[in-house]
Amino acid sequence: MANHEPVATGDTVRFLGAAGTVTGSKHLLEIDGRRILLDCGLFQGLKALRERNWRKFPFDPASLDAVVLSHAHIDHSGALPLLVREGFRGKIHCTAGTAELLEPMLLDAAHLQEEEARFANKHRTSKHAPALPLYVGKDAERALSRLAPHGYADEFSPAPGVRTIYRRASHILGSATVSLAWGRGGDERRLLFSGDLGRYGRPILRDPDPVEERPDVLLVESTYGDRFHPEHPSRELARIVREAAERRGVIVIPAFAVDRTQELLFVLRDLEERGEIPAIPTYVDSPMAIEVTAIYSRHTEDHDVDMAPGTARGQLAPRNVKMLRTSAESKSLNEMAGPMIVVSASGMATGGRVLHHLARRLPDPTTTVLFAGYQAAGTRGRLLVDGARTLRIFGQQVTVRAHVEKLDGYSAHADQGEILRWLGTFPGAPARTWCVHGEPQAADTLASTIRHRLGWDAAVAEDGATVPIS
Ligand SMILES: [Zn+2]
Q1: Distance from residue 107's CA to the centre of ligand 1 (Å)
Q2: Average pLDDT in the 139-165 region?
Q3: Distance 35 CA to ligand 1 centre (A)
Q4: Considering the domain 234-406 in this protein, what is its CATH number?
Q5: Which residue, among 47, 112, 42, has the nearest Cα to 345 in the 3D structure?
Q6: Distance CA 410, CA 271 (A)
Q7: Is 80 helix (H, G, I), strand (E, B) or coil?
Q8: What's the chain's Rg over C-alpha atoms?
Q9: Residue spans per domain, the chain
Q10: Model pLDDT for residues 35-87, shown as the tens digit of each residue
Q11: Which pLDDT score is estimated for 2?
Q12: Distance (Å) from CA 363 to ligand 1 centroid
């Protein structure tokens, strides 16, 4: 494959995604003549962004020594099947938790791509005939076969002379900051990539690890670089569950299968143990969420003390929980009366089993629909939160008589205060800090806050730019 990029001199990093936006995370390192790709994510959200997934990689995938992943979210890992299909033959480094999560997540991503193409061909909604999936299950399987899992704090070498260490980022299971070092003595250079940075004091996952070495260059995420999260919202969740239980209603919770579902299950059990809510029947109705919950339970290296074995708390299972794997089990809920809780995907009600629960329950005034995550513009979730009185599901207009609640404060991303707290653990100022993974205003605000509060040299990473590491 021809390679038309300019020849870089010296060590550089090139921002190829999640620069000026939050998805498509991809940073190309050229160090000591070696090429390492940090993250290999899909662009998500608006159509103009998603179309970028169809462009050729701006480098030859076969020329990479390795990929080093920060975590399993699709906007950080979802382009791996494409990379392998286009000729990448190296290892994909990740933590043990990330390796396990990637299997259901990449296969699901491929499945969604195939479904989308099938839908486009059936309804002729694409200008391409036939519409093709971005990638298929086989491509995902090939990517999965290249995974190389590592423990936290274990040094590994993605390319000769490059020493790499993962530390906990506390964003989702397996998420890590990536510390790379190369050269020796006075010539040693370090780059630190925050990946997606999580929260302090969250249930299940341990706090972010402190940073032990001063990096020359820091790439820090800025999703909520201009925001502060509200206090932990479990008190509000308890009120909503109690009220719904009193009217013997059904609580439908559209939830992301990865992390949000597990956090909600933990908090519901905790509230039961504290006697703040009754232990009503709770159904987890998403095969992916069930698989991910099992993975979360297995990876004790990520667990905080509140997950210590033998405690009544620390379980990703309310007392009367039932996991529903088959669609027949899912449909059987339609016949059942409340009080009960149904946790189902997708988190923004854009698809998945939650749709049939909404179609069935929204017209019932005893129902509560509870959103515990970000709802993007244009999604059914956002329409409901904004007070829609009817909602289109499966081609039908469904009347909304249910209570609709939105819980703020459940987020897997550090807010500005938490990012600064993590930066406060650094033993010294990086020579240069680049804010990545943020909309322009969030990234700008974080960069100027870092300049003014910490006195560091910080700027916003520009999409496509190549910057030196020196
Ligand atoms: Zn993430």
Answers
A1: 18
A2: 97
A3: 23
A4: 3.40.50.10890
A5: 112
A6: 16
A7: helix
A8: 23
A9: 12-227+412-468, 234-406
A10: 999 999 999 888 888 899 999 999 999 999 999 999 999 999 999 999 999 99
A11: 43
A12: 34
Distance of CA 264 to the CA centre of its chain: 16
Distance CA 268, CA 265 (A): 5
Record the pTM.
Answer: 0.93
What is residue 454's DSSP assignment? Answer: I
Q: What is the mean pLDDT of the chain?
A: 93
**Among 2, 172, 3, 151, residue whose Cα is nearest residue 76:** 172
- 118-142, pLDDT tens digit by residue? 888 888 777 777 889 999 999 999 9
Answer CATH for 12-227+412-468 from 3.60.15.10, 3.50.50.60, 3.40.50.720, 3.40.50.620:
3.60.15.10
Tokens of 440: 């322009």
pLDDT at 291 over 60: yes
pLDDT of residue 127: 73
- 466 Cα to the center of ligand 1, angstroms: 24
CA of 73 from ligand 1 middle (Å) equals 5
Compute the distance between CA of residue 355 and CA of residue 359 in angstroms, rounded to an integer: 6
Tokens at residue 306, please? 């509140």
**CA 41–ligand 1 middle distance (angstroms):** 10
Lowest mean pLDDT among 125-139, 223-237, 256-270, 298-312: 298-312
Report the separation in Å between the CA atom of 413 and the middle of ligand 1, taken as the mean of its atom positions.
8
Distance 22 CA to ligand 1 centre (A): 9
Q: Tell me the average pLDDT across 359-363.
A: 98
Alpha-carbon distances, residue 276 vs 100, 119, 298, 312, 378 (angstroms): 34, 45, 28, 15, 35
